[in-house]
Amino acid sequence: MSNMAERQADRTRKTRETEVRLHLELDGTGQGEISTGVGFFDHMLSHIAKHGFLNLEVQAAGDVHVDAHHLVEDTGIVLGQAIAEAVGDRAGLRRYGYALAPMDEALVLVALDLSGRPLLEYRLDLPVAKVGDFDTELAREFFQAVANHAGMTLHIRQLTGRNTHHLLESTFKSFGRALDEATTIDPRLGGGVPSTKGVL
Fold it and tell me: With 184 labelled, which of 4, 8, 121, 128 sits at a CA distance of 20 to 30 A?
């Protein structure tokens, strides 16, 4: 059950391949305690926390001796579920958020809508297949899982950039900032839902 007063969630997912435990506080201070066994992924998740002013704790383990696909996707599933739980019926939310967080030459736009309708439009042209211990194609799998399980329409569009690390860092920072904006309570709504239909 959601608790809109607290706007937080605890989620766990355990399969034969992975185990993920996650704690999310929407009204945080940017504190991230992340341990997935995939260093670059930890780094990216910490950007979501820091730039989204979320408190995020992730403890994850899995079959990374095969590759990190299951771990990254399952972390996205759990994060999406936690977002959905923390925002509850979405009453009073700004609902929409977008951000452009430049990282040197890289600039990626992230725009999202907490609409209840999952969709991902992902347009990144990443020059290399691996950064550190992270397969860069897994970024798409992560954001697809988040969008699906948060009930989020999510657009990610590269405007410029040539360094893969910079492009991904711009993406994760922008996502954090966009999520912060979308989950902010707008007092002008008086607790209502930001939709002409009256429901999301």
Answer: 121
